[in-house]
Amino acid sequence: MLIDINVNLPGPSSPKRRPLPPQIVQFGTEELVLIELQGALEVDGNKDGQLVGNLRVDPNTKKPTMMIGHHLLEGKLVNLAKPLAVLHKHGSPPGADDGAAMEVEDGSSRPAAHATSWDVVAVVKKKMVFAKRPLPVVGHSTGKGSSAVPLSRIGSKAV
Amino acid sequence: MSGITEQCELRFSPSSSTDTGTFKLLELPADICKLIESSDTANFPRFTIIGATDEDAVLCTADKTYTVRSVVLSNSILVVTSDPLGENVEDDDEPIHEVFIRDQLQEVIELVPSVPRLHKLNSFLRGREYDEGHEDEDMGTNSDDDVSEKRQKFTYEDARSTIQASHAELDKGLRDRRILILNGELRPIARSHLTTILELILTNLVSLSLPHTAAPIATLVSALEDEHDIRSAVSRQVLGWFGRVDENRGTWEMNVDAVIREVGLGILRVYWNDPAHDKAFLAQWRKAVGDTFEDKVALPLLSGNYLTSIDSLSEPPKTLLTYFPSSELPVEPGARFAELFLARPRWKIEEISPFLADISVDAKERDKLLLKHARTVTDPEGIWYAARAKYSG
């Protein structure tokens, strides 16, 4: 079983994709940022395009904060000890090979055993970390869109 | 509302269902990171993950192998990008207020440098040895032997996709193990046949008066093929193993020591059970390599492949040689020392060193191994290394 990993980083010649807002870029790369949460986002139902919360970076202190429903998270910038490559499964048609399903032909292993290939789409050296407990915010309007019932909530930490 | 520009909405990707599971995080060792960063878009490196279901996967670069380990995180990491559907930048300067979660990850893949895992070659290639008289079997009609017919061919391509080693390491492994690639199939050469071919090369160099520093390959190969039925595909690869092939000029520069060593090994191999007298052995070896090279014959070429002992019964005492190849000793240091001390209870440093050369990268590491697995005994003859623990009285 072989899995190819190609490096496909944006270069000067590659078509420009939409960059991230400048205040977010300082936590990752032009196009991608990693946000670490304690616990996980748990969502019921279809989550396509749904609002999770509002992300704000203080222009002076550079401190990120995130409002999720009535919870305020305070974050910080963390430099990674070792750089992380972000891999993205390469243009596989949806459903063609479901995640971990491996195409293993016993015994006869041919070059055609290339099941999937992955692209290195970014090399990141820092991340935005929200490690503290969320602070409940009472009687505070979270701005536009807050009237909608938040679909997501901070899941309890596993284990 | 203060500072609307600092604030943006964090949303799930509009294509969440197809995005989920399509991202992974790979921790990059410094050398791979440097490799990626030092190359530009035109020649980015390629990596391959190789592994069967029953083995730990490895990641290979062009010339290195890393073990792949998945580390589960207690936190989760969101992969956030701009709108995945808005492909190109429209030339409006409208600030972006939305960022999108493409995937939520709970594990990171770690890479740990590893030695190439070539040992599987041995089991894949068992019984596929190439020997004299195998020339015609490519017709595939050896119906008298059902077992060998069922045995699948193991090709170079198979090795590339199943052996957990980078291409450079695999190629070196095949060379070191003297494995031929014939019509794409991997065939380890029988050692006795290899010795025969090398002896023929030596005699032909002399009989055709070819210079061993720049022998014309075509002449040599056709002489071997016409007079000794050695296929050119075989002899060309053997020439590659034992010298430098100059493709442009079509010449071969013999690695004299390597050839003489292999011929010596071929002779020595017989004496694994019944030791040879060193003088007789050297005479036989000199005869085999011929007049031109006989002064190059020297026992140190075979170090790590023989043990010496003194036959004190003969008068005067003779030195005896026994075939004892370090390549067949265990790779694991503890087991190797056990075998060494079984063969001989105590060793001088210069005697034991050749048998540790292939499991230690340098003298410092060798001394560390000796410190750990042996103890020193000093007597008037000097320092000896002996087994660490002796439980029997």
From TrEMBL, chain A:
<protein>
    <recommendedName>
        <fullName>Ctf8-domain-containing protein</fullName>
    </recommendedName>
</protein>
<comment type="similarity">
    <text>Belongs to the CTF8 family.</text>
</comment>
<feature type="region of interest" description="Disordered">
    <location>
        <begin position="90"/>
        <end position="111"/>
    </location>
</feature>
<keyword id="KW-0539">Nucleus</keyword>
<keyword id="KW-0131">Cell cycle</keyword>
<dbReference type="GO" id="GO:0003677">
    <property type="term" value="F:DNA binding"/>
</dbReference>
<dbReference type="Pfam" id="PF09696">
    <property type="entry name" value="Ctf8"/>
</dbReference>
<keyword id="KW-0235">DNA replication</keyword>
<dbReference type="GO" id="GO:0006260">
    <property type="term" value="P:DNA replication"/>
</dbReference>
<dbReference type="GO" id="GO:0031390">
    <property type="term" value="C:Ctf18 RFC-like complex"/>
</dbReference>
<keyword id="KW-0238">DNA-binding</keyword>
<dbReference type="GO" id="GO:0007064">
    <property type="term" value="P:mitotic sister chromatid cohesion"/>
</dbReference>
<dbReference type="InterPro" id="IPR018607">
    <property type="entry name" value="Ctf8"/>
</dbReference>
UniProtKB/TrEMBL annotation, chain B:
<dbReference type="GO" id="GO:0000775">
    <property type="term" value="C:chromosome, centromeric region"/>
</dbReference>
<keyword id="KW-0235">DNA replication</keyword>
<comment type="similarity">
    <text>Belongs to the DCC1 family.</text>
</comment>
<dbReference type="GO" id="GO:0006260">
    <property type="term" value="P:DNA replication"/>
</dbReference>
<dbReference type="GO" id="GO:0034088">
    <property type="term" value="P:maintenance of mitotic sister chromatid cohesion"/>
</dbReference>
<dbReference type="GO" id="GO:0000785">
    <property type="term" value="C:chromatin"/>
</dbReference>
<protein>
    <recommendedName>
        <fullName>Sister chromatid cohesion protein Dcc1</fullName>
    </recommendedName>
</protein>
<dbReference type="Pfam" id="PF09724">
    <property type="entry name" value="Dcc1"/>
</dbReference>
<dbReference type="InterPro" id="IPR019128">
    <property type="entry name" value="Dcc1"/>
</dbReference>
<dbReference type="GO" id="GO:0031390">
    <property type="term" value="C:Ctf18 RFC-like complex"/>
</dbReference>
